[in-house]
Amino acid sequence: MTAKSAAAAARATVYGYPRQGQGRELKKAIEGYWKGRVDADALRATATELRRTNWRQLAEAGIHEVPTGDFSYYDHVLDTSVMVGAIPERHRAAVEADAQDGYFAMARGTQDAAPLEMTKWFDTNYHYLVPELGPDTVFTADSTQQVAALVQALALGLTARPVLVGPVTYLLLAKPAPGVAADFDPLTLLDRLLPVYAQVLTDLRTAGAEWVQLDEPALVQDRTPAELNAAARAYRDLGGRTDRPKLLVASYFDRLGDALPVLAKAPVEGLALDFTEAAAANLDALAAVGGLPGKRLVAGVVNGRNIWVNDLEKSLATLGTLLGLADRVDVAASCSLLHVPLDATAERDIEPQILRWLAFARQKTAEIVTLAKGLGGGTDTIAAELAANRADLASRAGSALTHDPAVRARTAAVTATDGRRSQPYPERAAAQRAHLRLPLLPTTTIGSFPQTTELRTARADLRAGRIDSAGYEERIRAEIGEVISFQEKTGLDVLVHGEAERNDMVQYFAEQLTGYLATQHGWVQSYGTRYVRPPILAGDISRPEAMTVRWTTYAQSLTAKPVKGMLTGPVTMLAWSFVRDDQPLADTARQVALALRDEVNDLEAAGTSVIQVDEPALRETLPLRACDHPEYLAWATEAFRLTTAGVRPDTQIHTHMCYAEFGDIVQAIDDLDADVISLEAARSHMQVARELAGHGYPREAGPGVYDIHSPRVPGADKAAALLRRGLEAIPAERLWVNPDCGLKTRAWPETRASLENLVTAARTVRTELSAS
To answer: What integer pLDDT is reported at residue 9 of this predicted model?
Structure first.
């Protein structure tokens, strides 16, 4: 096919779409099902209608080929585990008794069975359920869900392409099951897994699929020769089968690198590549292998992870370069649109001109269709769209919001001394022990407490004008008083105020910093039914006034025990926002760090002796390629130190991280120079404690003993057992006792019981230590 005919054949498609619905109908239906208010039939009806709505929106926008299989009740990796029969033994009976309840049991756990471990999907804030595999794992095909979605889309008269997690990525994301040797490599199961994938592909072809997409994002990471050979073997096997649909192997989030020639040679009909995060690298690599003659190339030229309007002329230039490198070039977003909100037009509180800078899922869909039209018919066919796009880009570039001379001058004046504490850790630790006088194995929580119905009602009443700010603040004071009273009665050692005034750990601060925009309906799935509204980091950042001092000092006035000041760190403020793409991330991080530094200093001046600066996203934001790690970790750790280094030696700085592979960044954790770090450890059985010990981490640490993402209440004996395991790695004088994460998503009854058990466990182990 010539470049001209490839352009004429260009089609628009996407890899996935937001699942929740305009009003988060899926979240409400699932949580209603968990509480017994919604039955299984009603839940399925909601899911069916949401899928239908999504496909119709896509088709009406001009998308030629809609995805199926991207919809999920909880997580698409968990769906893959069900598809291949990788059900943990502890959940097998529940799944056999009721497939839907067993599915949710794997995700959330039950009182008798722990859930699957949860961690971040590559470098995004989406969490997936980690497959548990071992040498005895037996895979069996169950394509029911995938076939049903395809049949539903085809019945609507749509061209549909099922999307599956690819077999290599699935195994590379998996971990050894409990009781399996830690050095077991799930990739050794590939030959056992491939026939199951082949059966699913056959089932989909029989159901009417012309194409099936197999997502292999793990191949954009650094991969060993053995792993690349496994990928070659997988697609030689699947591609060599005759009773199958055409195969589109998709990669995203970074450059494909050494895996590109492997996939280019494979007997598959198409590849999908990311031309936003790694456009130049993927273009060069594609040219180096001689293109994809006879194959389909799906070019991800619209950023599926951020919300800024596309530079249409730049994307058309990239697409034009690709013509001639493949038999057919189609246009798509760089990855699933799962990672962005649904529709920017729902926002009523953002200035109309600024709103034109933004593209959520529906706007990105329109951009994809416009680019496909321009690629196929020439720029004259989209002249009006190009003119409007140029005006929107110029408006943003020239806005005063994006350039504050005072912020830039302060950032430019930062020196290395600004990021160093005045004394080394051993001297600080001695001063802090003398000042705080905490017991061995001090107990604390991560920060947030349950958001009660009364609190949510008060927040809604304030928005609706049914109460004034004085009435709302009275509710906040009452909530803080209840939280402090409970913690004192329970016997916790370092308290928190519970964050009753905060809607979200990032949005709360973004709403008080200049340069940020907040949305009303910009919901994005974080995990399961947990949705967040990432704020938009649109311009230069500064802090007009104190953000947390008032409520922290109020809480401290209610108790003689120390109350932690609670802040979200600069890297997490970036990672859980939609960041600006018009300057280096390091520059933005430094601006946020200086704003937070002012808050840290004000907290200390108000009498706060313990200040926690959370950085759960430090590992999440780690680049996918090792060669990019040093630059990122240098500015990320510098930003944290810049935030925290201005305090006195006897002020104790904490940080917190959760649900990530910490072993990859232990040196960076050390480089933060925090006095205490708390980390998720309950689901991973204290793995992080062993990793810290292996590194020789010299400071204090609190590996969690209570998994807050499950409704299970851990008994005091189980918490004590985890604590003893932590003591095998971390000396008692440096070990803290705490949950894995904040308690905002939990209900009060389970929170009370779990924290009472946590304190009992700490006291039990303290007694054991004093007797030994």
So the answer is: 74
736-767 core/surface letters (b: 16 or more CB in 10 A; e: else): bbbbbbbbbbbeeebbbebbbbbbbbbbbbbe
Q: What DSSP string describes 109-157? A: --SSSPPPPEEESTTSS-EEEPPEE-TT-------HHHHHHHHHHHHTT
CB atoms within 10 A of CB 11: 21
What is the rounded distance in angstroms from the CA atom of residue 404 to the CA atom of residue 573?
19
Which residue, among 412, 399, 406, 415, has the nearest Cα to 580 in the 3D structure? 399
Active-site residues, by number, are: 709
| Cβ-based neighbour number of residue 157 at 10 Å | 7
**CB-based burial label for 591 (10 Å; 0-12, 13-18, 19+):** buried
Contact call for residues 194 and 167 (beta carbons, < 8 A): yes
- Let me know: does 655 contact 569? Beta carbons within 8 Å: yes
H helical segments located in 176-311: 190-206, 225-239, 259-265, 279-288
Quote the longest CA-to-CA distance of the chain: 84
The token pair that represents 2 in the structure block: 């010539």
Per-residue pLDDT at 504:
85
Check if the beta carbon of residue 563 is closer than 8 Å to that of residue 628.
Answer: no
Q: What is the pTM of this model?
A: 0.90
Burial of 452 (0-12, 13-18, 19+ CB in 10 A): middle
Please name the helix (run of DSSP H) or strand (run of DSSP E) that holds residue 700, with its range, or none.
strand 700-703
Both tokens assigned to 736? 């803290």
752 to 483, 714, 746, 759: CA distances (angstroms): 10, 11, 10, 11
Show the tokens assigned to 5.
């005919």
Residues 334-343: tens digit of each pLDDT: 999 999 999 9
A 10 A CB-CB count for 401 gives 16
State whether residue 404 is helix, strand or coil.
Answer: coil
Instruction: Find out whether 400 and 406 touch, Cβ atoms under 8 Å.
Output: no
Q: Please, what are the averages of pLDDT over each run of 10 residues along the chain (772 residues)?
A: 64 97 96 97 97 97 97 98 97 96 96 91 94 97 98 98 98 96 96 98 98 98 97 98 97 95 97 91 93 96 97 97 94 98 95 95 98 96 98 95 94 95 96 97 96 88 90 93 97 97 91 94 95 95 97 98 98 96 95 98 98 93 94 97 98 88 87 95 84 94 88 91 94 95 91 96 96 86
Written as one letter, the residue type at 646 is: G
For the chain, state the CA radius of gyration: 26
Kindly give the pairing relationship between strand 160-165 and strand 676-679.
unpaired
CB neighbour list of residue 655: distance below 8 Å, 6 or more residues apart:
569, 612, 613, 614, 615, 640, 672, 674, 676, 677, 678
Spatial neighbors of 741 by CB under 8 A, at least 6 apart, are: 446, 616, 656, 658, 659, 680, 704, 708, 709
Measured between alpha carbons, how far is 51 from 155 in angstroms, rounded to an integer?
A: 12
Residues with Cβ < 8 Å from 205, sequence gap 6 or more? 212, 243, 244, 245
Hey, what amino acid is at 237? D
Residues 6+ apart with CB under 8 A from 626: 222
Distance CA 662, CA 337 (A): 27
Question: What is the DSSP secondary structure assignment for residue 309, as one 8-state letter?
Answer: P
